[in-house]
Design brief:
By secondary structure, the chain is α/β, with parallel strands linked by helices. It has 3 helices and 19 strands. The strands form 2 sheets. Strands 1, 3, 5, 7, 8, 10, 11, 13, 14, 16 and 17 form an 11-stranded parallel sheet that branches.
Length: 255
């Protein structure tokens, strides 16, 4: 005769066994002392498929707490930094090589019904583009080598030309075109001046430096627990080491 548990019984025994498990976990951690390690699990998913569209970002650095959803494609050497969100649910997001989305920025797309301009639009980001933290790109096009400042907003149907600069906190209105090589700022954004040769060179360096730094962060984020513990021990050893100590010096001991 088979014994069938009611839902309330299953909940009771499940809670009871989980409680015992937690008790044993606490005892084990207490015995390990400073060596104890707690694996923290969260529900956050960095890459999320949406209606059978899976992000293609294998050649880019995506920070562990960033969120990339749906039909998103990024090029080699690109990066999506901490807290940024790329949501391609009703259209696509295409980002070229060596382009970078700053911390807590939002990149979105538009359906026909949800667009400010009244037409469906993807977001297209070219190569060597730098997007500062807290920026918003919504169903727009950013050409190669452009720079979008921190907290700037580029709205539906807007086009930012190659090598153009949108200053921090500026807002590019829907359907507006920022010509190549120009600096625009303000709310709404308007022409300020041409990009100088020094500025153009600095923009190029910024994209390269961001790519280099992204590789360092990717290495750090992929380290195992053992590697992190070894780094911690090495840092402690360096901080507490006698300043006169040199690992390259081998003395001769004499009685």
């Amino acid at each position: 005769m088979r014994c069938v548990q009611t839902p309330s019984q299953a909940r009771f025994w499940g809670k009871f066994l989980r409680g015992w498990g937690g008790t044993f976990e606490g005892i084990g951690k207490g015995l390990q002392g400073d060596l104890a390690y707690t694996e923290k699990m969260g529900k956050h998913r960095t890459l999320t498929a949406f209606q059978a569209s899976t992000p293609a970002v294998s050649s880019s650095f995506v920070a562990p707490c960033a969120t990339v959803i749906g039909d998103v494609t990024t090029g080699a050497g690109s990066s999506v930094w901490y807290g940024a969100v790329l949501r391609a649910d009703v259209n696509s997001i295409k980002m070229g090589a060596n382009s970078h989305i700053g911390e807590r920025s939002v990149v979105h797309v538009a359906s026909e019904g949800g667009s400010i301009a009244g037409t469906a639009a993807a977001t297209v980001i070219g190569n060597d583009v730098t997007v500062g933290p807290l920026a918003v790109l919504h169903a727009c096009t950013i050409a190669d080598g452009a720079s979008i400042g921190a907290a700037a907003t580029v709205l539906d149907g807007a086009k930012i030309g190659a090598g153009a600069v949108v200053e921090p906190a500026a807002m590019v209105s829907p359907g507006k075109t920022v010509p190549a090589g120009e600096v625009w700022g303000g709310v709404p954004a308007a022409f300020i001046r041409k990009v100088s040769a020094d500025e153009a060179a600095a923009i190029g360096r910024a994209a390269t430096e961001a790519a280099d730094l992204a590789r360092v962060h990717a290495t750090e984020c992929n380290k195992s627990w053992g590697q992190l513990e070894a780094d911690k021990e090495a840092a402690y050893d360096f901080a507490t080491r006698d300043p006169d100590y040199s690992p390259d010096y081998v003395g001769v001991y004499k009685v």
